[in-house]
UniProtKB/TrEMBL annotation:
Residues 51-109 form the Partial AB-hydrolase lipase domain. The keyword Signal applies. Keywords: Hydrolase, Lipid degradation, Lipid metabolism, Signal. Belongs to the AB hydrolase superfamily. Lipase family. It comes from the Eukaryota. InterPro entries: AB_hydrolase_fold, AB_hydrolase_lipase, Lipase_euk. Residues 1-16 form the signal peptide. It holds the Pfam family Abhydro_lipase. This is Lipase.
Amino acid sequence: MFTLLLLSALAGVALSGRSPNADFIERVFEVPGARYSTDILIDAKLDVPGLVARYGYPIEIHEVTTADGYILTMHRIPHGKERNNEPDANKPVVFIMHGLVSSSADFLVLGPGNALGYYLAEEGYDVWLGNARGNFYSRRHLNLNPDNFLNQAFWRFSWDQIGNYDLPAFVDYILAKTVQPKLHYIGHSQGGTAFLVLNSLRPEYNEKFISFQGMAPASFFTHNNKAVFRSLAPLETVLETTAFAMGMGEVFPNMDFVEWFVRNYCLEASVFEPMCGGLSITGSSDYVNETMQPVFFGHAPAGSSIRQISHFGQNIRFDTFRRFNHNRLTNILQYGSATPPDYNLSRITVPAYIYYATMDSLVYPKDVLKLCGKLPNLVLCHRIPSETFGHLDFIWGNGVRTLLYKKILDQMRESEDKYL
Ligand SMILES: *[C@@H]1O[C@H](CO)[C@@H](O)[C@H](O)[C@H]1NC(C)=O
Ligand SMILES: *[C@@H]1O[C@H](CO)[C@@H](O)[C@H](O)[C@H]1NC(C)=O
């Protein structure tokens, strides 16, 4: 995802024109029966509520405040438009969480005929989409200011905090609001990582989930031999320290940091060369509809903290899935040991359905199999039947609905029969 960030930033994608304020919603007229984007430029510029409203789906905006003061936004599509088009308190609930530097838009940009959010709403689900702290929709805090370059406290979080604070706030809120005992969780990439964090650190949350549907959940990087990844690993501390020192704990869409990064690494250090150019945005994907790219890059990247990236860097460097490594003293104060503890995966007892892709260049198939081998209640560890499916095809791939979403839906229904 890091390559993607740089490339899209270099491609001149700017998010600054949009405002997270709900008042912004621009109600462009509804398009009956549309299955793809009917106007690429409009869809690229709208925010999530505007996008959903444009295709005639119901959309609600919900705010939660985490125990550590972050104010986060969720988007809800409570029912479908063509089928299951009435509110119903008995609908099964699904909560979907995006990956690194992304947002709830990931599950909508493919349009009503294809995107996971609309698909599950039409199939009878009450669909909730989260936005992790620090992204475009969740860039607020009770006391901390994300725009204060002299005090970067807002940005000192990784996906450990997303799992440990954001997810429980979302889940508790949704269950209270819907008066349901349990919900399904779907996570893409870091969205899966955060789920593993939550249920290993707070195992009491296991009983709140019907199933865990993990789309390329990121955990181990043992088998990933990509030069980009290997080059990032030893630099994780340098990268983070430098970024914080420069008042740039926010990775994207902070264009200054991108400029700095490009200047320092694309021209000087050859290890970063592969990240700086000559790559196609989606790697070798056969699936991405090129016409749709302005829509995808109108919504991603949506921002995150540098520490999310350095935490992944640590996992690569130490070849383990464990909590964030501070300095020795802070580790002792926070964890009671000089080195951070591993996330204890044997505490994750939710029925787990894991999906992975042959051509995923971030979350390698072998690394997913390693994770599958450690989940005590694994039901399915499924390779998507394609030789060319990649990491972003989970959210942007043409045909992902037939190749994958249908399968996820079947598994969700099966798990409701068994576990609800
Ligand atoms: C690609 O996207 C465009 C615009 O949304 C759509 O009109 C077209 O049908 C899509 N192509 C394929 C092959 O699905
Ligand atoms: C991990 O969790 C399991 C299940 O709760 C427990 O039996 C085991 O002792 C834990 N391991 C560590 C290293 O804490």
